[in-house]
């Protein structure tokens, strides 16, 4: 490839990089793996004769999807030996992500966890069709299926996700208010305050990856979750702070123990109360907690 062609390939790749990262991240739930996929996409992209490519954006999305699918299948084997619950890697995001309701919902921890229950091909089809509005013909080329098969997979995946995703899109202000109440109760060791803001059927999932201490199974119910949270902090007897931040397009909590980042806690809020808590403590998943990651659907 000539220097001029390489410059053109680089310019196009950089222009669409945030989109490609978002596609890969929504398919994988891992920023580190998404970055690896982008590197693999770039290596293939510079070998392409751009004069033969009618739609460069679509072609890049196709390469990214194929590489992400390969990575997703290998990740499935890694997750089988993972210690405790596997949670998506949280991303510190800018306010513009939160303002894009469609994008914020698609990368929310609650929806990303639902995507984990799809097969790799179902997840690729769902993400491309429902999140990025890619046509069936283009998806078929990306996943090596016929357009008719892709339509069936998309219908099945949509039905599966709709049955498990949050019933309503909750406003940022409602999520923030619930988290602020949770924060105050946690900092004050207020058991009743926690019980008031947690839904009776709340589920707490914590991800330490075998590196940091975490519950190896989900904790169910407001009473057990409240006592687990307060008991854990009292047992450590280490000074801690809890602050509000924006993670994956939604308000979340960042926890510091003795001045050091301990984890990110995302929440699912329904009817004004917290029905899901997702606490990522695995330090290998906290590299994106200090600086904002740009995400886009376009």
Description:
It contains twelve helices and six strands. Strands 2-1-6-5-4-3 form a six-stranded mixed beta sheet. Helices cover 53% and strands 16% of the residues. The chain has 298 residues and is of the alpha+beta class. The protein has helices at 3-28, 31-45, 56-80, 95-99, 101-106, 109-115, 120-131, 136-143, 147-162, 172-187, 191-197, 222-236; strands at 198-207, 219-220, 240-247, 250-257, 260-270, 273-280. The two termini are 28 Å apart.
Would you spell out the secondary-structure blueprint of this structure?
Elements: H1 3-28, H2 31-45, H3 56-80, H4 95-99, H5 101-106, H6 109-115, H7 120-131, H8 136-143, H9 147-162, H10 172-187, H11 191-197, E1 198-207, E2 219-220, H12 222-236, E3 240-247, E4 250-257, E5 260-270, E6 273-280
Parallel strand pairs: 1-6
Antiparallel strand pairs: 1-2, 3-4, 4-5, 5-6
Helix pairs in contact: 1-2, 1-3, 2-3, 3-8, 7-9, 8-9, 10-11
Outline of the structure:
53% of the residues lie in helices and 16% in strands. It contains twelve helices and six strands. Strand 5 (260-270) and strand 6 (273-280) form a beta hairpin.
């Amino acid at each position: 490839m000539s220097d001029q062609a390489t410059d053109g390939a680089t310019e196009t790749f950089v222009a669409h990089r945030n989109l490609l990262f978002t596609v890969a991240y929504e398919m994988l739930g891992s920023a580190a793996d998404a970055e690896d996929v982008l590197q693999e996409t770039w290596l293939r992209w510079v070998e392409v004769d751009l004069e033969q490519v009618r739609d460069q954006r679509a072609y890049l999305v196709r390469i990214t999807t194929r590489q992400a699918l390969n990575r997703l299948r290998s990740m499935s084997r890694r997750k089988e030996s993972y210690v405790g619950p596997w949670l998506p890697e949280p991303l510190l995001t800018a306010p513009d992500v939160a303002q894009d309701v469609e994008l914020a919902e698609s990368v929310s921890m609650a929806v990303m966890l639902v995507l984990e229950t799809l097969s790799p091909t179902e997840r690729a089809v769902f993400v491309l069709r429902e999140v990025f509005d890619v046509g069936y013909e283009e998806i078929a080329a990306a996943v090596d299926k016929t357009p008719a098969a892709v339509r069936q997979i998309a219908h099945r995946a949509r039905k599966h996700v709709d049955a498990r995703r949050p019933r309503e899109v909750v406003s940022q202000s409602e999520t923030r208010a619930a988290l602020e109440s949770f924060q105050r109760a946690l900092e004050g060791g207020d058991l009743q305050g926690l019980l008031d803001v947690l839904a009776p059927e709340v589920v707490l999932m914590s991800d330490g990856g075998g590196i940091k201490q975490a519950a190896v199974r989900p904790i169910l119910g407001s009473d057990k979750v409240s006592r687990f949270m307060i008991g854990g902090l009292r047992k450590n007897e280490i000074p801690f702070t809890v602050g509000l931040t924006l993670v994956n397009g939604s308000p979340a909590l960042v926890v510091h123990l003795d001045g050091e980042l301990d984890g990110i806690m995302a929440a699912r809020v329904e009817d004004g109360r917290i029905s899901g808590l997702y606490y990522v403590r695995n330090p290998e998943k906290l590299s994106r907690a200090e600086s904002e990651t740009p995400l886009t659907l376009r």
